[in-house]
Write a structure and sequence with these properties.
By secondary structure, the chain is α+β, with helices and mostly antiparallel strands. It has one domain. Helix content is about 25%, strand content about 10%. It has a two-stranded antiparallel sheet with strand order 1-2. Pfam families: HNH.
Length: about 50
């Protein structure tokens, strides 16, 4: 589970701030190897999945 706005930056655990992301991709995002907003396929957010 990935926080769109990091908790350290004031983001919440609310479903609208969460998205499912592959474990390896998640590590790359946080390691700075991938930019969060580019170079990846759009992911379904948890709030959209819950309807």
């Amino acid at each position: 589970m990935h926080h769109l706005i990091y908790r350290s930056k004031g983001g919440s655990d609310h479903p609208s701030n969460l998205e499912l992301i592959h474990t390896t991709c998640h590590r790359q995002v946080h390691a700075g190897d991938r930019k969060h907003d580019t170079h990846r396929q759009p992911q379904a957010s948890l709030s959209r999945m819950r309807g």
